[in-house]
Amino acid sequence: MRKCVRPEVPQWLSENAANWNERWRSRKSESKNATFQWAQHQGRPVNHWLREALAEMTQEHCAFCDSFPVEPDSVEHFRPKSDVRFLHLAYEWSNLYFCCGGCQKAKREQWDDRLLQPDAIDFQFERYFEFDFTCGQLKASSLGAAADKERADVTIATYQLDSQNRRRWRRLALRRWQNDRVPEIDLYPYRDYLQSGPQN
Question: Which end of the chain is more exposed for a tag (fewer CB within 10 A), N or C?
């Protein structure tokens, strides 16, 4: 999970979000079984517009696992859109992230107040996480406070950030980056892993 900075809310979203949120809240209150469908904006579903804006925030990497390129790409509702507590956030800019299919499938509609957000003002990767370069493992920082470790553990488990596949993909990305010697880090996945790992 790499630190990112959220840009200003797009004007078109700022002008329409409250109305779209209310429509969704109303549909869900009428039927608990109502399924979410993105509103339309200028002939395209809103998520198509959002993908472009949110991908720019993360240099087209997944906001949670930092995979790249992201296929299939999706818009993740950090606070679940179908949870009655968060219906009013379905189109809230601060609740939306560019996300890979793997992270979205792992999280589903789960929610935990301890989940970390990569664009939080006080988020720093080193505060919460560390890698074991012998195996590609991502784990809670051994130097962190107990509450920070707990938040890291919850985030890792929710998005399955330390699956065996992800460990393997991180090691493969590191070998590729070392062999390519291309200085542009944004062209590679798992940038925190690459930059903090062995350079030879």
Answer: C
Alpha-carbon distances of 139 from 53, 105, 134, 146, rounded to whole Å: 30, 21, 13, 13
Q: Which two tokens stand for residue 143?
A: 């130097």
Q: Report phi then psi at 7, rounded to 5.
A: -75, 175
pLDDT tens digit sequence for 150-200: 999 999 999 999 999 999 999 999 999 989 877 799 999 999 999 887 764
List, for residues 83-141, the tens digit of each pLDDT value: 999 999 999 999 999 999 999 999 999 999 999 999 999 999 999 999 999 899 999 99
Cα gap 170→148, rounded to integer Å: 23
Amino acid at 16: N
The dihedral through the CA atoms of 97, 100, 103, 109 has a sign that is: positive
CA angle, 137 then 146 then 196, to 5°:
35
Nearest alpha carbon to residue 115 among 173, 156, 58 = 156
**Do 49 and 10 meet the contact criterion of CB atoms below 8 Å apart?**
yes
Residue 113 to residue 63: CA distance in whole angstroms: 18
Angle at 33 between CA 30 and CA 19, to 5 degrees: 50
pTM for this predicted structure: 0.93
